[in-house]
Design goal:
This protein is α/β, with parallel strands linked by helices. Helix content is about 25%, strand content about 30%. The protein is globular and about 50 Å long.
Length: about 240
């Protein structure tokens, strides 16, 4: 049986219900920028999931392929219009290959942190580079670790508090391991979902890219290409393969 990781059928069944994540105001800028970077060429999404970004890109006439560990998430993609014909490999982002080469490989919504060791993250960059055509680009969207907001001696940082969702990130500053804890109210009952992550700094990602033969081309604070500064809480970074 394929290991779905932490995104099993229970999570996949409610994934698309996150209205904020699927808001066109969030999705459209990402799709706009990715389509521009692809410049009409084929694209590959690491962690394609239920198709939040991949399907809108395909609707723009691009050939979109994907890799995802979760068979349950990909089954939801397959049930959508256009998803049934999309080429998707089930497997680990660090080592799974898809036939062919791509002008753009991208990884969004903090998915790089789902690889919970530095070695796996390094391998992910190499896997991306191996899929790229000469001159192709690898795009990563990820948060900046919020360690300066941690009170001295503390390791828990709340990030969500609504009527139906409580969220707390648990940091281990020795290993860069973290766990994102979510408690959601479902049919009047509290359900807990926790996922292990490894936070990673922009400079560390640049070194991973360099090891894979890629160089930094752009770094923005968001999909609108706002400047990345010391106050930025996330970044969209683009590394390019020589060619």
């Amino acid at each position: 049986m394929q290991d779905d990781g932490h995104f099993d059928e229970r999570v996949a069944a409610s994934y698309d219900a996150d209205a904020a994540m699927f808001d066109p105001a969030v999705v459209t800028p990402a799709v706009d920028l990715l389509a521009e970077l692809a410049d009409g060429g084929p694209v590959l999404e690491f962690g394609i999931g239920t198709g939040r970004i991949g399907l809108p890109l395909a609707e723009r006439g691009l050939r979109v392929a994907g890799i995802d560990l979760s068979g349950a998430m990909v089954a939801r993609l397959r049930a959508k219009s256009g998803g049934e014909v999309m080429e998707v490999a089930i497997g680990d982002l660090a080592e799974t290959r898809v036939p062919g080469q791509f002008t753009l490989v991208y990884l969004v919504f903090n998915t790089i942190t789902n690889l919970t060791t530095q070695a796996a993250q390094v391998a992910c960059f190499q896997n991306a580079a191996n899929h790229l055509t000469p001159g192709g680009q690898f795009v990563v969207e990820v948060f900046v670790p919020a360690l300066r907001h941690l009170p001295p001696g503390q390791h828990l940082l709340p990030f969500a508090l609504t009527d139906d969702h409580w969220g707390v990130d648990e940091y281990n500053t020795t290993t860069q391991a973290m766990t994102s804890h979510h408690i959601r109210m479902v049919d009047g009952r509290a359900e807990r979902f926790s996922v292990p992550l490894r936070y990673v700094w922009p400079a560390e990602l640049d070194l991973m890219a360099r090891l894979a033969g890629l160089s930094l081309a752009h770094r923005w604070a968001d999909w609108h290409r706002e400047p990345f500064t010391a106050e930025s809480t996330a970044h969209v970074s683009v590394w390019q393969k020589p060619g």
